[in-house]
Every structure is written in structure tokens, then in C-alpha cells.
Fold this protein.
Amino acid sequence: MSNTPHITRRGLLRAAALAPVAGALAACATPAQQAPAASAAPAATSASNPFGVVANKPLEIWIFDGGFGNAYATDIHQPLFKTKYPQVEIKHNSTKEITKVLQPRFAGGNPPEVIDNSGANAMDMGALAQDGQLQDLTPLLDAPSWDDPNTKVRDILDPAVAEFGTYDGKFSVLGYVNYIHGIWYSQKVFRDNGWAVPKTWDEFLALCETIKKSGKMAPFTYAGKHPQYLYEPLLTMAAKIGGNEVLVNIDNLEDGAWSAEPVKQAAEAWAEVGAKYLMQGTTGLDHVQTQTAQNKYQVAMLPSGSWLENEQKDTTPDDFEYGMFAIPDFTASDKMPYGTLHTQPGESFIVSAKSANPQAGMEYLRAMLSKKAAGDFSELVRTVSVVKGAGEGRDLTPGAKSATEALTAAGANTVYYRWRTWYAQLHDEAVAATGQLMSGGVTPAKYVERLQKKADEIKNDSAIKKYTR
Amino acid sequence: MFNTYRRGLFITAFLAAPVTLYLVYVISPYIQAFYIATTDWRGVSATPNFIGLDNFVRLFSDGIFWKAVTHNAALLVLLPLFTIVIALFFAFLLNVGSGGRGVAGVPGSKVYRVVFFFPQVLAVTVVAVLFQQVFRPDDSGMLNGPLMALGLSPISFLSDPGIAFWSVLGVMVWQAVGFYVVLFSAGLASIPRDMFEAAAIDGAGRVSLFFRITLPLLWDTVQVAWVYLGILALDVFAIVWVMTDQQGGPDYSTTVMATEIYRNAFEYFRFGYASALGVVMFFFTIGFAILSLRLSRRERIEY
């Protein structure tokens, strides 16, 4: 009868062996099918209430708490919205982990109304669009603007916004910030050393040589751990050499889009910079480390976007004076003129189609696009918004000013690409390959070949949804 | 009779809660993963489509996943090998290693035993972030700083695809060794001292003490260590995800199965496909567990 339980060594081992497997799989869970919350009938619409916001229905807002923080929402946007709808209860939230927090809400059928779906952990817009989770925001474009009932929202926005936010033929994502890409430097350093902003690629290489010889600092760096910071100027240069269609072809997964001559020439140009002029250790440093090195005057130039100045505000010396210049002319026969810029609406706001109160969500976005909200925002977070003229008469910082001037100078010569968000797998491959290109691991010819192969793979994969522009 | 019934009831009462938890949080996710693996679920839809075995067919031509599998396989061999060799060496020195008479460790062995255990106390994420700094490629790196001060060129521990894998392996060994030193020390303590003393009197040096006495009598413990480390090698995730460039890079040179599952699920939003990868990983791990239990079947030595 004395049958005490006995744990054998093998039994213990078996249990130990199984436990971690369980952990690996336990992360997934099947979606729960749930009837979508029936939206209450919207209130009557009018010129001042174009979407029919019900006066007392709550509105839930999630802000990505990244480089811009979330004070702009609580201090600028929400008070403005409240002036018109004092009875609407606003539930404000912010997180750095949009996907982890909100994806279960979508799968469970009760998503929040407004989401700033941005940052490294943003939800995949393509997956959301494919599943009908994005509210069609076309009525927002056609609604009267917050400030002036005679002007449509569409007319006060940078035209790229509508183009960029369109998924499956429906405008459903509102980019709020205008990201302007270029090569960033310290205006003070350039002035003190008598270095001039290069207008041609030869001048750029000569400048790199001068800086290298001066021994004062390294000529160039980029966020080596995140090589997407470098494929950006590479592709902008390819577009400059071969025209905007280079990027359109890449986006549309056209045959031979990556192996086209302009892409190869740009790859060769940047591989030379990688081989000769990089700051030591670049490939192992991230964006914060390289940008901080620039603030410490260890390196002269790096590629980045107009968020840079705000991101670095804590480490930048007071007299640093950020400046930005466009990608120099590669040859005199470039298809696009000097000053061509890569601009792209960012900080993507969406309204969930299956939320309880999408009308209020759209109205919130309309408030955000008022001149006051956009202008206050630009000033608070030192950046350029997509609302035309919102920065006028505002006291902009040197970097924001420089970027705004470059944008004005570029005029209609702006380019962009969208494959990065459309095809995440291609992005990862480009990141891996670009890192290799800059450290000499692959030749420019192999580089374009490799990306062409991945693009073809994606094109032939029926499970991946395709987009065109 | 009644006693047996009472006893059964007693056991059932105690087991009910853990078994329920196990069913809900372990077994049911397993089964769900098998189901999700046969769908095209992208994580947001409430109604995924059934697509049969398409995900598994796709998986066979996924070069990156198979690269990840080879990395896991390499870790499966190398991690236990290095960790056990180093841990045995230290455990031997700490317990039997003193050159003089009697069975004792090298001087200061009590302190070393604690110091070796330190890495085990740190959370994996902390270790990963710590080693990012240790491996920094500029003069603020703990390893590259001295190298550069000596006028040598810095080593790209994490940014050279040819070196990064070895850096990951090095960190994993560093973290694991302490625990196995303690495990082997416990094993050594259970070996009767007179065996060492008898061997020493017969003129055995440190080397033959180790190979003729310590290793054979510790064989059971070494096997346990081998299985534990094998499992660690198969489900490594956090070190790679947090420490390496581009989470498994550069150029996928450090990626492992778990990171590819995570990438497909939470970056590409291909939950169906990621579950299929998870199912494959499940069979690899189960296969390893069965294999190692079969191979480790052996008579016990009674003292």
C-alpha cells in the first residue's frame, strides 16, 4: 500500500523537453468570430457636422508614442475636437506596441475608432485593408475643411496624401506628417570649415575626400544596423538618373525593375561611398548612435528625414544648426533636375470600419487637419505637416526650415515609393542586401540581381496581395 | 477498498486545477496552431479560409526558414559541446582540482562558484542588450575598445555575417556555463571521495583523475545537461531577436526557427504560414526529445 509517487529521471526529462515547445506554440490563438457591433444610426449630417457625429457617443483614440510623443493629441487635437463636441467622451490611449495591443481588438471585432498606426510595431495596412477593417475616408476628402466651409479638405492637403493613403482604390489611410528625405549636416560645421553643399556627385565625392583628408571627422555614415536608411538615398538617386518611372516600376513589380541600369548605377555610386568614406564601425551602429556621433562632430553627413531634428533634440548642441540637401546630380543627363526630393506622408492615421463610432473618428481627423491644429503640431514637434501653409508665420527650427525650403525648391519634382509597406518581405531582403552592398559583401551587379529575384518571387506568389500605382 | 477510493479522490482534487490549466493553455493552443497552419489567416480576420497543406508546400522552398533550421542544428551540436566541456573543466577545478593532497578545489573556489552563476541570474533580454554594448564596433565597445587602443582594427562581432553567428553562440555559452558548473559540482559531490583518494594514492594525476574517475561517474549528469542544452538550442529566440542586427541578421546569418516564426506572424502578418512553421518546429523538438531519451537509456551506477 505504501505506493509513494516516484518521479523518474526520464519522466522529468520528458516533461522538461515538452514545456518549451508548448511555449512556442501557445502564442497563437484562433480568432473568435463575433457579430460586429451594430453601429448606431448616425445623426443627421450638416455642413458643420458632415459625417453625422452623435453628440454623446464615446470616441476611443490610440496614439503611437514614438518620436513625436503623444502630447500633441491630448494638448492640441483633443481640446479642439471638444470645443465642438463637448459631450463626446474621448478615451485617449498611447502605446509603442500598436500591434500587440490592438491586433487582438481587431480579431475580437471591437477595434477602437482612431488609430495612429505607426512605428516599427505598426499593424500591416495591407492585411487590414484586405480584411475590410479600414474605413473609407473619401468622404473626409470631400467634406468641407474645419476652418472654411467653402474649401474641401482635399484642397488643403499635399496631393501625395490621397495617393499614399489609397488601398484597393479607396482612400483609407491619412498620413499627417510630410517626411522629407535628404542628406543632413551641420550648417555650422560646413560654414566653419568652408565646405560647400555639393550639387553634383563628383562634388560630393570631392567633399568626402576633403573631409577625410582634413582628419577632423569622418565624411559619411548611415544607420548601419538599419540599412533602409541607405536604400532610401540609393533609390532616390536611381529615380533622379532614370526618372520617376524607375520607382513606379519597382512598386508595380515590373519585370527587370530592379536590374534596370539607373538602379545599378546608383548602387555602384553608393558602394563606392561604402568602400571609401564611411565612419569606422558604421555597419554595427544604429540610427541613434550614428546621429549622436554627428552631434558630437565625429561625422559630417548622414541620410535621414525631417523627423531627425526632433529625434535628436536632446543631444544636439545649441549651435549645431541642422541643414538638409537633396541628392546631388549624378551626371548632367539625369532625367530629373537638381533638387528632386523624396517626400512621403507619414504618421498614418486610420479609422476602423468596424468600430462603434467611425463617424466621430472621421470628424476627429477633420479637426486634426485644421490650420490651427496642424500649425501647432508643426511647432510642437519640429516638423512639416501635410496641411498646406500650416507652417506659415510659425517660428520653425533650422532643420525644419531647411527642409521646408528644399521642398519649396523641389516644386513638382518629388518622388516616392510604396513597395516598402506593400511587400514587407521585399523590404527585409533589401535591408539585408543593402547592408551587404555597403560593407562590400555583394557587388552592385549581384545586389540588383538579388533584389530582382526576390521581387520576382513575390510577383509569382499568389498568396501575397499585389498593389499597383 | 474505501481507502483506495479516498486516495483517488484526493489525487484528483489536487490534479484538477493544473490539468485544466494545462489543457486550456498548452494543449488547446497546440491543436489550434495545427488548425491555423491550414488556413491563410492574416491575424485580423474573424473568418480565415481553409487552404489545406499549401503553407507546408510553400515552406519547403522557403530558403530563409531552412537557413534558420541549419543554424538551430549547428547550435544543437555546438552549444552543448562547448558549454559542457567548459563547465566540466570548471567544475573539476572547483571541486577536485587542487594539486595538493586530499580532494579539494583550487584556492578561492567558493567565490568562483558564485561568480560563475551570475550570468544565469540575469534575464535573457538584459544579457542581449548588455552584449550589444560589449560587441559595439567602435571604441566604446568593451572588446573593441582595447583592440583599437592597441592599434588593431575593430572586429565587427555583430555586423559581419561571417562572425555574427559565433558571437551569438559565445553569448549563449557564456550564459549557460554557470548553471552547469553548479549542476556538475552537485554531481561531483555525490561521487564518494575515497574513489578520488584511492586513485590519487595510486598515483593518478589531474588528467587521469578527470578522464578515469570524474567523467565516467558524471556521465548521467552530462546526459541531462546535453538534453537541456539541446532544448535551449532549439528554442533560442530572445538572444537573437534582441541582440543581433535586423533581428536575425545581418543578411539572415543568425536567424533561427523561432525568429522566423515571429517575423512571419507579427511582421508579415502571415499567421497561417507562421503556424505551419511552428508545427514543423514542434516536430523537430519532439523528435529531438524522443531521440535523446532513447539514446540516454542506460544502467545507473550504484555506489
Notes: The first helix of chain A runs from residue 9 to 26. The CA atoms of residues 144 and 349 of chain A lie 19 Å apart.
